[in-house]
């Protein structure tokens, strides 16, 4: 060492520091915290959207199941009536129709109405109109499901 030279000894390695490296170090300070905050926000939003979608899909599935149950119930009720002999098929018999136990449980506050009307054209017969309605989510009434069936008089034997 020269006598006039004042060199300082440090334990740190010698680095070349330019104007860019100092600013990069300042910008990166706290970067991990910001990235973690953004990632947790994105995950939270995805979770909220997923739960919302699952609730909607579940409600739609329940509505579809009830509509299928109502369609099967009303179809079965009309089929039972059309299987009766012609002379027994009266409006009084239609008023006696009752929901099955599975439909009574699966369709809240369901109301079944079946009407029998005489028709003359194209040939003498009876028109059966079935209507089934029930309450859905929020205790609102669904639009009624309607099915119609026709039964014609047996041909006269000469």
**DSSP, total strands:** 3
Shape: rod-shaped
Order of SSEs: HHHHEEE
Strand order of the largest sheet: 1-2-3
What characterizes the major β-sheet? 3 strands, antiparallel
Number of helices: 4
Unreliable stretches covering 5 or more consecutive residues: none
Describe this structure in words.
- This protein has 158 residues and is of the alpha+beta class.
- The protein has one domain.
- It is 46% helix and 16% strand.
- It has four helices and three strands, in the order H-H-H-H-E-E-E.
- Strands 1-2-3 form a three-stranded antiparallel β-sheet.
- The model has no long low-confidence stretch (mean pLDDT 85).
Main attributes?
single chain, 158 residues, three-stranded antiparallel β-sheet, alpha+beta
SSE map:
Elements: H1 19-28, H2 31-82, H3 91-95, H4 101-106, E1 111-119, E2 125-133, E3 145-152
Antiparallel strand pairs: 1-2, 2-3
Describe what is shown at a glance.
This protein is α+β, with helices and mostly antiparallel strands. It has helices at 19-28, 31-82, 91-95, 101-106, and strands spanning 111-119, 125-133, 145-152. It has one domain.
């Amino acid at each position: 060492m020269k006598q006039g030279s004042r060199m300082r000894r440090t334990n740190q390695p010698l680095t070349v520091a330019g104007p860019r490296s100092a600013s990069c170090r300042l910008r990166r300070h706290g970067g991990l915290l910001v990235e973690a905050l953004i990632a947790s926000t994105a995950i939270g939003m995805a979770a909220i959207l997923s739960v919302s979608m699952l609730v909607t899909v579940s409600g739609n599935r329940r509505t579809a199941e009830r509509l299928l149950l109502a369609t099967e119930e009303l179809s079965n009720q009309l089929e039972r009536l059309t299987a009766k002999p012609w002379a027994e098929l009266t409006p009084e018999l239609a008023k006696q129709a009752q929901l099955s136990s599975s439909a009574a449980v699966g369709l809240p506050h369901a109301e079944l109405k079946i009407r029998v009307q005489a028709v003359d054209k194209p040939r003498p017969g009876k028109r059966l109109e079935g209507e089934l309605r029930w309450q859905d989510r929020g205790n609102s009434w669904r639009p009624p499901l309607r099915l119609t069936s026709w039964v014609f008089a047996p041909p006269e034997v000469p």
